[in-house]
## 1
Amino acid sequence: MSFVVSPKAYARFMGRYAEPLAEVFVAFARVGARDQVLDVGCGPGALTAQLLSVGAEVAAIDPSPPFIDAMRTRFADTDARLGTAEELPYETASFDAALAQLVVHFMTDPVVALRQMARVTRPGGVIAACVWDGPTGALAPFWDAVHVIDPGAQDEALLSGAHRGHLTELFDAAGLRDVDEVPIAAEVVHPTFEEWWEPYTYGVGPAGDYVQRLGDDRRALLETVARDRLGSGPFTVIATAWAVRGTV
């Protein structure tokens, strides 16, 4: 699985869902003007952009060098660093809030990472995270098509936080207080099937890895099955995520 890809490829693949999701997620996290916020696993900046739009002061971190390069170009005044959630290079109690959008399910050790997020956040500050729901998230239509031709394929439904209550368990294990978990959603209209399908061929994340491992015949079959299920477009994907908020 790789996220060392071009920011443009990632934006085509996931940014189309991450950007509208960020608006709902920031409102859920109750972050606003003048709050000092850490964006953990920032990617090319969907969440950072939304945080800045509500007047927050943002620092950002991600383990992907291309993403951090893109962040430094796009947000020249933002402190964007290369690093992992499990070893955050910030002083204790540096932020009012720490947020992680679509990241917990790819953390090496989610509980350690959440404890790090809590460490760098002031007492009483907010820790919030969201991840796609396994059966109804942004990638569900893709994996539903995969399972027609490959019923045993391991999709992203088993990743951390991908079902109701799992994020809450992780937040509780990390020692956070007043934990609240709710479903949030982003609604995205795809004008054509090709616009929806093409980004899956870019090799981004588990779905992209799966497509790239297929031979030409199997890839063509998967594309045909997905088209039969979704139609030629336009069609709407309502992508549901679980969001959780806790207090340090």
## 2
Amino acid sequence: MITSKSKYTQFIKSEAKRLGFLSCGVSKAGFLEQEAPRLEKWLNNNHNGQMSYMENNFDKRLDPTLLVDGAKSVISLVLNYYPESLQVENSYKISKYAYGTDYHYVIKDKLKELLFSIQENIGEVAGRAFVDSAPVLDKAWAAKSGLGWIGKNSNLLTQKVGSFYFIAELIVDLDLDYDFATTDHCGTCTACIDACPTQAIVAPYVVDGSKCISYFTIELKENIPQEMKGQFDDWAFGCDVCQDVCPWNKFSKPHNEPLFNPNTEILSMSKKDWDEVTEETFKAVFKDSPLKRSKYTGLKRNIDFLK
């Protein structure tokens, strides 16, 4: 059995690496003081649009001890999804994170394995795994634990690998050695703000979610407002523009997670192929894909809007 706090921390980080995570950082579970007024202001400005779930569990979003009894540590992990190959030119675009298997399944399995390994080697540790489907401010926790800084496009950025990765957490009732936040390296750069097709980055570090192409093509369930016509730059599911133009993403390296390998059909599809997708084909090609989230009707709506 492993006994000391620093050995626990070391063990958890090496296990995270073994499971394929890009990096792992730890912070003390507690109330996110700086985030509280920021989140409140963002919600008051209706930057969440119709994502009403962002208004729920306000307190839990800011305090992980309300999610896990006796929580002492937030273990933040990032998993690379940057693909080796991209879609063909002149196609309707989908976010790179949606090329392969839905990340919720992939990461949940890794987190369960990590928690099991902690319990097996350290002892009785209670905890919960989170992959962006619960009220956890994952970017804030990842930044607090030194995994990167939150950039002007509100994504977590790192100098070594940019921002094409998923963030997840284990919240546990175990005391660990805590990491320190890193510094901001956005400097005077405004590439993401200047490039956003719908001007959704309304101020440095502030994204109006209700103006974001990802919001319109994934979250919005009703018709896309006509005034947005011609502004989507052929994005049919999500949008990567603010990441694609970020200078730090010059350092992105292809992932090594087989489950994120793209379905070759998706990468080679032309606009004509997308137009001709039937519900049957959609179910077959995208059965384990994040695109399932928009459903066949949502994808068709998005593509029709782009014409």
## 3
Amino acid sequence: MSRILLQTTITAQPDDWDIDRFTLLAAELRAAGHDVLARNRAHHGDDPVLSVLDDLGFDQLWLMAVDTGDGLTDAEADAITRFRRGGGGVLTARDHQDLGCCLTRLGSLGLVNEFQDKTVDQSHLCDDQDTPTISWPNFHSGANGDYQQVLATDPAHPLLHTSRTVSGRVEWFPAHPHEGAVSASVPCATVVAEGRSSASGRRFNLAVAIDGETSDGLPMGRALAESTFHHFADYNWDLGCGAPSFVSEPPGNQIMADPVRLTVFKDYVRNAANWLHPGAGAGADVAPHASRAVVL
């Protein structure tokens, strides 16, 4: 199993999306047998872990990019790039508009994350009409606490494989009123799953995988870009965990009423951890159902 760094791009801030908002994700990864270090930035300026990530023996970085632009220093971005060049797997998750735009420092992984183009009026594209302060990109997949249907072509990407549904794939993701945008805009990038806006009906990408990228002729680690960190936030798995005070949208109750579909989604989480493991092959693409706990 992997040694995973689950990291946010902000310092500890109880009334924000800091690492204490992702405890259920950390627990799920540990239950699958992974060794997980979950942390925020230590301070502004070069972080003592991120800035030397490639020297610390981690196998994966799960980066919750919840900052407004200053989430990565040059030294940290360089270390993450070296980490991937050394075979490390990286998952990024951001959200609407320019949240997490520090990811633009990460080469191809930054390019598959789409941000606001201030030279073009994109206001007509905003799906979330209930929160006018949030601009493009945003896709209204549903209320926090609800599900959204996953659209996928056959055959489904291995990341979606599960034995818990008749279709053999994960069919539902947690929803969010204003998801960000990711695209298969670089070589070796593949759309894993799509959603459909409940406001406009537009299809959008939920996750994009990068597999087979090389640097100086050598293979780089796999990468996975999520349209929103709300696929993984405690609040979107269990409303009882609460949200920061600035979250004003009324929540839904579908996950509370039918937690089985969330259990299936957790196979996607486990698949991601297996798929991102350095050197992972076909045998590591499907989530196991037996697990053991690891306590740090």
